[in-house]
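Q: Here's a chain of 156 amino acids. Please give me its 3D structure as tokens.
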Amino acid sequence: MINKIFYSLLIIVAGCNSDDKKNSSDGNTTDTVVSKSAPSISIDSQLLKPGITATNKVYTNDRFKNVTLEKQAPGKFLVKGKARVFEATFSWVVEDGHNEIVSGHEMTDAGAPAWGNFSFMVAVVKSRPNSTLHLILFEASAKDGSRQSELPIILE
């Protein structure tokens, strides 16, 4: 199944980047670019192992950008991205719509105003099988600790 998807994406990307040759009225060949705006697709070889999937969504707001989520195993997710946060620190929480299940704090490799890189693992177990888990990244207010610039991401 993953191989079919991979080859389909490869064909689409190759087709989008093809050039179309046309002859002009003076007999010279001209190049007409069909599309150069197709996104590049990179697939990590680890993701091709059975049972390991990845979402291809990228999440962004004013404090977080290029945030991606990779499911490593049931209930385990690798979160990567960039953040522009005060003192290179941000927080996260996993909720099921009613309760906070797990939470934590992370650091980037640079503080605001620069965009710092981050990468961390989230391990969580659903308390109710029919619930939907949400990971929420946020910056805690220096004034009162309230959540600022929340970025919600659906886990499963």
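Q: Can you summarize the key feature?
A: The beta strands are 19-23, 29-33, 53-54, 64-73, 76-83, 89-95, 100-107, 116-123, 134-140, 147-154.
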